[in-house]
Amino acid sequence: MQSINHVLMIKPANFSGNEQTATTNYFQQRVTATNTHLQALLEFEQLKQELVDHGITVNVIDDTAEPHKPDAIFPNNWVSFHADGTVVLYPMMAVNRRLERRMDVLQQLSDRGYHIKQLIDLSSHEVTNQYLEGTGSMVLDRNNSIAYASLSPRTHIEVLDAFTRRLDYELIMFEARDAQGQAIYHTNVLMCVGTRFAVVCMQAIAEPQRAVLLHSLQSTGHVIVDISLQQMQCFAGNMLELQNDRGEICIAMSQSAFNCLPPAQLAQLQSLSDHLVVAPIPTIEKQGGGSVRCMLAEVFVPIRS
């Protein structure tokens, strides 16, 4: 399946802007704000409740206060879960983000009945300064075993090759830049792949590679929702398709992403899903430089009977 009813969210203990990631994440805004952590907690709870209200199973696990982890709210960068019971751990560029990899999180999920059969740890690539930040660096078409990846300081071909070999995925790579010509730090801010649709900022992708990406998405039956660079900056590419407890398709996105979509694109997404799940998370987006998709790690591993 492309989408699942189970997600992991990490409730932050010390949310703040991360100076170690700001040099490569141009979506982060350097703003002076008070009560940043408390506001992020409110936004976290609101997103969680919207998901629960739409029939999504949300596994909330608390961040630990020590060591300090300002980006713990974004678990999809350090771990991914797969339907055969495989869990993958990833190499992270920022040293303080490596602290987010917690085996006790996997143990807590196991205690809740999730059957983790195999662990693949790619984090050793950090020794050679090669990174792959999970389903931030890659957007996975799970139905067709295709990994889409935009190369960046946080996404290296050597680790991509290791992932695709171990999990038997086809790799489609490209380069993507924002309006200022800066490399886009994570693929999941410029594209989202669902069962029947793909939201993509084609304008960001290098033109010779654009046709290859378009052909792959269309040949796998995806309706293309092409967003602009400005919409991408509002996190319109950072959506995630989920499936609720009734088997209905839900598309989760932030309020800023929803607000920047014109009626025609909203109608397109509504025709390709059953529900749009929308939550305002402005503090998390501005200070963290990530949005709804970054906050959710889909738990595809099976549940023990």
Class per helix and strand makeup: alpha/beta
SSE arrangement, N to C: EHEEEHEHEEHEEEHEHEEHHEHE
The percentage of residues in β strands lies in 15-25%
Shape: globular
Question: Segments where pLDDT lies below 50 for 5+ residues?
Answer: none
Query: Portion of residues in helices?
Result: 25-40%
How many discrete domains?
1
Rg (CA only): 18 Å
CATH secondary-structure class: Alpha Beta
**How many strand segments?**
15
Major beta sheet, specifics? 3 strands, mixed
Question: Can you identify the CATH superfamily?
Answer: L-arginine/glycine Amidinotransferase, Chain A
Predict the CATH topology: L-arginine/glycine Amidinotransferase, Chain A
Q: Quote the distance from N terminus to C terminus.
A: 19 Å
Using the 3D structure, state the CATH architecture. 5-stranded Propeller
Spatially, the strands of the biggest sheet line up as 2-1-15
Oligomer designation = single chain
User: What's the mean pLDDT score?
Assistant: 95
Count of helical stretches: 9
